[in-house]
Amino acid sequence: MFKQTPAPVPADGLAAALAPFGQSRMLPREAYVDPKVFDWEKQNIFGGWHCVGHAGDLDGVGAQKAVGSGSDGILLVRGEDGRVRAFANVCRHRGHELLACGASAKRRGIICPYHSWSYKLNGELRNAPAFDGISGPDPVEFGLTELALVDWHGYLFVDPSGSDGDFALHIAGLEEVVGPYRTEDLRVVARHSYELDTNWKVIVENYQECYHCSTIHPELSKISPPTSGENIDLPGDWMGGWMGMIDEAETMSLSGRSGGVAIKGLSEHELRTVMYLVGFPNLLVSLHPDYVMTHLMTPLAVDRTHVECAWAFPREALDKPGFDPSYAVDFWDLTNRQDWAACESVQRGLSSPHAQPGPLAPDEDGVYQFVTRVARAYMGSR
Ligand code: FES
Ligand SMILES: [Fe+2]
């Protein structure tokens, strides 16, 4: 693992978080409010495998998209060979960003907007204007810096450190969980972008439990009983669990009805449940019988997180005359906003110097999975 120094978090607090379930405490308050801990996480947790987007966002040869910014700036490019590559979003001349943060482009080369150096889609330098042939920079030596990238079931993961280990270990045990939904074949047809005044971990912790559902999600609780389901044990870095739906419901929507079609080939169990996964650290994947919702989190500051929520459907649903994804989008937008209000309130609460790490309820074993994973990372292990 690429850890250098342990996180600047009190050791007794970490020991309390790592105590056996039932006796443990939440992470020390510093984990949510101290900018030094945030900087450590950016370098050490987000410096390893994390999700940077959907492969479907890079449609066709030459498609380019800039994600992250500053030290995390990454340029995603689909090459002549159809493969998506990730490069550090920095020109080899004098360091201009190749594409502005969040921008997309589609062309047969990568062109720096400053002095027009151009690169091939594989990152090799193609042309540096006005250098003569003899003193011109070497195309390979001055090629873009490529980062490790894996396209797994249509989700793109990057390891900027290059030393976070084998990706297969990171997603160990998930092939049989995610594979049946064939997420690589689904189409994202709706997206919502939210900017929350909360730490990224508060969002994951909230996602990992339904202890709060009966209080803040009356609509959800009608369709999916809050105490249904169970968490699964995964050997890699991901975690999560499933929940059931009432017999009358086909999916998660206000009425319980689906406006789409079930994803082909799912098992009886998969058709009656929703699987909620945390792709550690920043991707939440909610596998429904007829659609897949993802939340992609980009931490902006210790108390600010950008969340992009995307809804993907099978092609057969899109072919249905008058198909309208709002049955899924509206349901989850309402639920998201209920969650975001709670998460922002937790952040404000934790900013109090009187905040202290509390104990976890029996229904919060999913939170325990996440908290202990983070606590271990703070100590420099997995
Ligand atoms: S900085 Fe990119 S061409 Fe000069
Ligand atoms: Fe919730």
Automatic annotation (TrEMBL):
- Where the record annotates domain Rieske, the positions are 49-158
Q: Which keywords appear in this protein's UniProt record, sorted alphabetically?
A: 2Fe-2S, Iron, Iron-sulfur, Metal-binding, Oxidoreductase
GO MF terms listed in the record are: 2 iron, 2 sulfur cluster binding; iron ion binding; monooxygenase activity; oxidoreductase activity, acting on paired donors, with incorporation or reduction of molecular oxygen
Keyword Zinc-finger in annotation: no
Q: Which CDD domains match?
A: RHO_alpha_C_GbcA-like, Rieske_RO_Alpha_N
Entry keyword 4Fe-4S? no
* Co-factor(s): Fe cation
Source domain of life is Bacteria
Please identify the protein, giving its name as recorded: (2Fe-2S)-binding protein
Originating species: Mycolicibacterium rhodesiae (Mycobacterium rhodesiae)
